[in-house]
Amino acid sequence: MSTNNANATHATDEVDVALVGAGIMSATLGAMLRELEPSWSQMIFERLDGPAQESSSPWNNAGTGHSALCELNYTPEKNGKIDISKAVNINEKFQVSRQFWAHQVNNGVLSDPQDFIAPVPHVSFGQGQEQVDYLRRRYEALGANPLFPGMEFSDDKSVFAEKLPLMAEGRDFDAEKTAISWIDEGTDVNFGALTDQFLTAAKASGTEIRYGHEVKNLTRDGKKWKITVKNVHTGDTQVIKANFVFVGAGGYALDLLRKAGVPEVRGYAGFPVSGMWLRCTNEELIEQHAAKVYGKAKVGAPPMSVPHLDTRVIDGEKGLLFGPYGGWTPKFLKEGSYLDLFKGIRPDNIPSYLGVAAQEFGLVKYLVEEVTKSFDGRMEALREYVPEAKNEDWETIVAGQRVQVIKPTAAPRFGSLEFGTTLINDLDGSIAGLLGASPGASIAPAAMIELLERCFGEHLIDWSDKLYEMIPSYGTKLAGDEKLFTEMWDFTQKTLKLER
């Protein structure tokens, strides 16, 4: 319902479930709830004119299918030992993603897995004796865990050259010790295509998707929520009532949860981090590389800026990216406002900001260095991975915008910069939102299962059979059940067409 009067406000529809944002999180939750409660009506609001145009866009993220196979920041060294707990936790969650996607393929919700997921080896890269030693110990720690089958390690330059010919060409292996560890059964995921398939099925099932509609406010109305929505093209405003609201609005989620008066976000703040990629334009070079290669991050760098040389498969075309290079802008979304950061400062989160400012000098220094880096400077960083890289074979593209969560803590720290994904919900479970960045999209099904447990606990007994259909390992840690892991792995490999 709309009108030419830009100041008009209309109280219109009522809906059971309102989803804010047409990205992978809303798409995943909507798919789950359609299967669990097909009679519940759903509506999606998206401020842009299409789905998956922010963090879910394939050019705005690495598409790694984060399962901690190669990301070294998930296996930190503590007191001389490799801590694999975070890697195991993230891998467990990615197995949930694989199972849910496979189930949706079998149900006809997802039409073609080859449009959104492709097999790409995941490789960890170590340079110098210290990193090589670390990589070997990491391999030994992870290789003993069922979730990391077939992991291999080598410090032999001939093996390196065979696996990574583009990275081997021109490399002086005698000057610096080099090693790699790898798992061939890694994946590349196009979360934009995945979101699009989910939302195509949602629309066919009766979900109304309103693109070009921005949620401006959320207020309680008894046991319901009043959602004030603005048509960004006409200026018309509508008020929609909903029983449950999910705020999957990326960097704008925190502000909307504040407007909704959710007490659980008091003291929370956001720190925006942007980035850029180098994208290869030479088809011959692209064909020489077939892996996602992750190295060690520089001191002070946020996890999203861990350097990696990435094979991508987007819309059937193979590509090659390197980066990301950290950047900074006060925007909370790529298509956001330069006033976002300043609008996000509140009296209750000023201590959080100040606490992080005092603690994270290394991060600030890193971002300043990255922002001032020239194209030639970015190419020099690339040559640590591709020694023979030529400027004319690469171009710069802007990556997505991320908002790292600043969590309030007690004195003397006051604030802690969080690099994970944080789910926030109010006490009665009628509203929830997702904050943070990596591993983000890769663990969307696990995050949404957690949301269901928190917000719809009274339905879980009735939903249990369906939940086990969606995720056969639901409630089980696969790291402790090698037989079940193998069954789930074989099932998802076949269903998602990942078998080589």
Instruction: Specify the number of helices.
Output: 15
Work out the helicity level.
Answer: 25-40%
N-C termini distance: 50 Å
User: Averaged pLDDT, please?
Assistant: 89
Shape: globular
Major beta sheet, specifics?
A: 10 strands, mixed
- Radius of gyration, Cα only, in angstroms? 23 Å
Give the number of DSSP strands.
Answer: 22
CATH superfamily heading = FAD/NAD(P)-binding domain
Whole-number total of structural domains? 1
CATH topology, anyone?
Answer: FAD/NAD(P)-binding domain
Uncertain regions spanning at least 5 consecutive residues: 1-7
User: Which oligomeric state applies?
Assistant: single chain
Strand content: 25-35%
The CATH architecture is: 3-Layer(bba) Sandwich
CATH hierarchy class name = Alpha Beta
Structural class assignment: alpha+beta
Family: Belongs to the MQO family.
EC number: 1.1.5.4
Pathway: Carbohydrate metabolism; tricarboxylic acid cycle; oxaloacetate from (S)-malate (quinone route): step 1/1
Organism: Corynebacterium halotolerans YIM 70093 = DSM 44683
What are its keywords?
single chain; 500 residues; alpha+beta; FAD/NAD(P)-binding domain; ten-stranded mixed sheet; eight-stranded mixed sheet; 15 helices; globular; disordered N terminus; tricarboxylic acid cycle
Written account of the structure:
- The protein has 500 residues and is of the alpha+beta class.
- The protein has one domain: FAD/NAD(P)-binding domain, CATH 3.50.50.
- The protein has helices at 24-36, 85-106, 129-143, 157-163, 165-168, 191-204, 253-259, 283-288, 340-343, 350-359, 361-371, 375-382, 444-455, 460-470, 482-495; strands at residues 9-20, 42-46, 77-78, 81-82, 117-119, 122-127, 152-154, 178-183, 187-189, 208-211, 213-221, 224-231, 237-247, 269-280, 292-294, 308-314, 317-327, 394-398, 402-408, 415-418, 421-425, 431-436.
- The strands form four sheets. Strands 6, 7, 8, 14, 15, 16, 17, 18, 19 and 20 form a ten-stranded mixed beta sheet that branches. Strands 1, 2, 10, 11, 12, 13, 21 and 22 form an eight-stranded mixed beta sheet that branches. The protein has a two-stranded antiparallel sheet with strand order 3-4.
- Helix 1 (24-36) runs parallel beside helix 6 (191-204), helix 1 (24-36) packs across helix 13 and helix 2 packs across helix 13.
- It is globular.
- Residues 1-7 have low confidence and may be disordered.
- This is Probable malate:quinone oxidoreductase.
- Pathway: Carbohydrate metabolism; tricarboxylic acid cycle; oxaloacetate from (S)-malate (quinone route): step 1/1.
- Belongs to the MQO family.
